[in-house]
Specification:
heterodimer, A: alpha/beta, Transferase, Pyrimidine Nucleoside Phosphorylase, Chain A, domain 3, Pyrimidine Nucleoside Phosphorylase, Chain A, domain 2, 2 domains, 7 strands, 50% helix, 11% strand, B: alpha+beta, Anthranilate synthase, 23-stranded mixed β-sheet, 23 strands
């Protein structure tokens, strides 16, 4: 580790392969927590390079319990989290709306770090049991058109660094890796990012893969389409800035898309919206994000069609049906 | 509407920073940020670079709608055909009440462009080609402007505060002082494509010659465009371009949906201290790389009857354009040889005095497109271009730059420049066709003009 740290202190960067080896070694317990803390800190002080991020990603994916869901050709909707905005569970709800609209979803999620209640918190609270077996996940796909993978169960590597991350209490490059390491490695992905820098680096990373993707960032700081202002969307063949107009919606107030201040409240809000009883702003935000997921899945559809499909799924209670099926399967 | 803007600024030394470095630090902290540079640091007047970020107001003309937004988020949508765009834009400019900081340079104003396709907004002409992929006119007011005076190595951070906003100058200083900024790779995909084959372009050139022979035109500028798909960070192409083709006007404007960047050698119009200036550039020879040979070429250029005729015609056009609103039109410099990275040009300077209270946008509208991008007589030339070129020109041949709240203006012609949209770089160049033109030579002229751009794309892959 000494050489690794000295390399970093001299402002040098690692190749993809070097980065991969280092993270694999960290996961195997080769280094102590002090060393890991110092390693993480160096990356807080400078920008991570694309090659390093690719290496870290490969290491995590290889170490993860791989799940083969390829026959389903599913999409993942997963934000980076960490926007510090404490909105309700927009991308989790959008996942069920997308699944309800007939598009297979392989969702990767975790407990909230900066928000009160992440997707794992809210689903757990509402009675969804986390599955780890491929067979069970396939059953979820078959019956609910959506499966949920709770990240810590699939990434033993993260266990090794979890105490260090917790003690540090600040964002590290691990926060950038979440959306990149879905154990089913889906070829379609909608992901939110907590800043434009991350949007740029994800964009360049996905450009080098065969994944169809959309990366969204609301320019006023949200890691999803918040409809509170303009949003940037990166995809394989373009980057665009869209206003709420693009979705045919009015601008939304920040207060209207707040999440709860407790896990219970967050679950309550989730429950209300999935039953089609959310307020206009909540519904529209969920529909907008689901529409982008649908469009990412099938680029030939125009956004109007995608919005219709999303509305039909939410208001026609198809999203609710998907959710209930998933819950009852557990 | 009136907006009182409180302007703060801080001054420090710029010697440890470069504009490119600062842009890399800022571009992802503030979406839609601009970089304007000048590589002409010989004179004090021309040695400023600007970074503009955090737009707080904008003026945007699409085909039918004109959308104006103000710092308090008020929005006005007007029917474009019911308004006079130059008046409206001038009013927009004047709605910001700022104190002149007396820094000795333009420290505050609007930054943007008018595209070639916008000409019908200012002139009684209709183009058949109306589909535009980018807005016709777009200007922004920014909360932050960083101005670098390369002559004295000074850096100014200028902050425009509306209402009781708190200053965030410290936050900006922290970003600037940060030592880390990421860089990424760039690569092309596939081959360059053009909207015209060489054969088709030659036939268009011949049509131009025919019009000149018939006496419909003295000169017409026909152009063709090229595209190249890419992945990664096209800012590297800008970095390469400013190295390969250092020019008076270097810029990188990120509009979110698309980016404009380039290295224009030619001013569209400059206004300062009630004086308007045009520098017609025409007469082009390719440089050889050998200084002695280049000198001989320059002398040949000065004696070439076709090039001289073309140049005089453009000087006349500039005189004519400036006399519409200006007085005392004078040709200040005539037929001077100037060396650029890849070509030699003949350059003149035409100037005129303006009446107090002039509308700078009106003067800009009266002088664009430049003769070098259209021809003579200008009106007829534009009609023939519209008839013969297969696509609308978009911003190619338009003007890009800034207008100070004090009425100063500095705009470059959008040439030797790229539009980056949908992961595709688009670039365009034209050739001045007269009756004596040899079609193959004109075809080559386009390639000569684009050679710096093509080299920049190649170099960008290696950085």
């Amino acid at each position: 580790m000494k050489e690794i740290l000295e390399h970093l202190y001299q402002y040098k960067s690692f190749s993809k392969d070097e980065a991969k080896v280092i993270l694999t070694d960290i996961a195997s317990g080769k280094y102590n927590h002090y060393q890991i803390a110092s390693f993480l800190t160096a990356f807080i002080m400078r920008s991570i390079s694309l090659e390093e991020l690719k290496g870290f990603r490969e290491a995590l994916l290889e170490l993860s319990a791989g799940i083969d869901l390829s026959p389903y050709e599913a999409i993942d909707l997963c934000g980076s989290g960490g926007d510090g905005k404490n909105t309700f569970n927009i991308s989790t709800l959008a996942s069920f709306v997308t699944a309800g609209a007939g598009i297979p979803v392989a969702k990767h999620g975790n407990y909230g770090v900066s928000s009160v209640s992440g997707s794992s918190n809210v689903l757990e609270h509402l009675g969804v049991k986390f599955q780890t077996e491929e067979k069970k996940l396939k059953q979820q796909m078959d019956e609910a058109n959506i499966c949920f993978m709770h990240a810590p169960f699939f990434h033993p590597a993260l266990k090794e660094v979890a105490p260090v991350r917790k003690q540090l209490g600040v964002k590290t490059f691990f926060n950038m890796l979440g959306p990149l390491v879905n154990p089913a490695n889906p070829k379609k992905q909608l992901t939110g990012v907590f800043n434009l820098e991350l949007g740029r680096i994800y964009n360049y990373l996905f450009q080098d893969t065969d994944t169809d993707y959309s990366i969204v960032y609301a320019l006023d700081g949200f890691d999803e389409i918040s409809l509170t202002g303009n949003s940037k969307i990166f995809s394989r063949d373009k980057e665009i800035v869209v206003s709420p107009d693009y979705f045919g919606f009015e601008k939304v107030n920040y207060e209207d898309i707040h999440g709860g201040s407790t896990k219970e409240q967050s679950a309550e809000i989730f429950d209300k919206i999935i039953k089609g009883k959310g307020n206009q702003s909540q519904n529209n935000v969920v529909i907008a994000n689901a529409a982008i997921a649908i469009k990412t899945y099938n680029n030939k559809l125009d956004i109007g069609n995608c919005l219709e499909m999303a509305k039909d799924s939410l208001y026609g209670l198809k999203a609710l049906n998907s959710f209930n099926t998933l819950k009852n399967l557990s | 509407m009136e907006y009182n803007i409180k302007t703060n600024y801080e001054k420090t030394l710029s010697d440890t920073y470069t504009p490119v470095e600062l842009y890399l630090k800022i571009r992802d902290k503030f979406p839609e940020s601009f970089l304007l540079e000048s590589s002409d640091h010989k004179s004090k007047e021309n040695s400023y670079s600007y970074l503009c970020f955090n737009p707080i107001a904008s003026f945007l003309v699409e085909n039918n709608k004109t959308k104006i937004t103000y710092p308090d988020s008020k929005e006005q949508v007007l029917n474009t055909n019911e308004i006079d765009v130059s008046d409206k834009l001038y009013n927009f400019c004047n709605s910001f009440k700022t104190k002149d900081l007396n820094l000795g340079f333009v420290a505050n104003g609007i930054f943007g462009y008018v595209s070639y396709d916008a000409i019908p907004l200012f002139e009684n002409i209709k183009f058949k080609q109306t589909n535009t992929d980018i807005p016709l006119v777009q200007y922004h007011v920014f909360k932050y402007i960083i101005a670098i005076n390369h002559f004295n190595n000074e850096l100014y951070i200028i902050e425009n505060l509306f209402n009781d906003e708190d200053s965030e100058l410290d936050f900006i200083k922290d970003i600037i002082a940060n030592r880390s900024f990421p860089t990424f790779k760039f690569r092309t995909e596939g081959e360059e494509t053009s909207n015209l084959s060489d054969t088709k372009f030659l036939s268009i050139i011949k049509k131009g010659i025919e019009h000149c022979n018939l006496g419909n035109l003295i000169q017409v500028v026909m152009s063709r465009s090229f595209k190249r798909r890419f992945k990664g960070d096209e800012f590297n192409v800008y970095r390469a371009l400013r190295s390969i083709n250092p020019s008076s006007y270097l810029f990188f404007y990120d509009y979110g949906n698309f980016k404009l960047f380039g290295s224009s050698p030619e001013a569209q119009l400059k206004i300062a201290e009630n004086e308007a200036v045009i520098n017609p550039i025409a007469g082009t020879f390719k440089r050889t790389g050998d200084i002695e040979k280049d000198k001989q070429l320059a002398e040949k250029l000065l004696k070439d009857p076709k090039e001289i005729a073309e140049h005089i015609m453009l000087v006349d056009l500039a005189r004519n354009d400036l006399s519409k609103s200006g007085k005392n039109v004078v040709v200040d410099k005539f037929k001077q040889v100037e060396y650029y990275s890849h070509v030699i040009h003949l350059v003149s300077k035409v100037k005129a005095n303006l009446k107090k209270g002039y509308n700078p946008i009106k003067i800009l509208a009266e002088t664009y497109p430049a003769g070098t991008l259209s021809g003579a007589p200008k009106y007829k030339a534009m009609e023939i271009i519209d008839e013969n070129e297969p696509d609308n020109r978009g911003i190619y041949g338009g003007a890009i730059g800034f207008i100070g709240f004090n009425g100063e203006l500095n705009h470059a012609i959008f040439i030797r420049s790229f539009i980056s949209k949908n992961n595709e770089l688009k670039y365009q160049a034209g050739c001045g066709i007269v009756s004596k033109s040899i079609p193959e030579n004109e075809l080559n002229e386009v390639n000569n003009k684009l050679s710096a751009l093509r080299k920049a794309v190649e170099l960008a892959k290696t950085i």
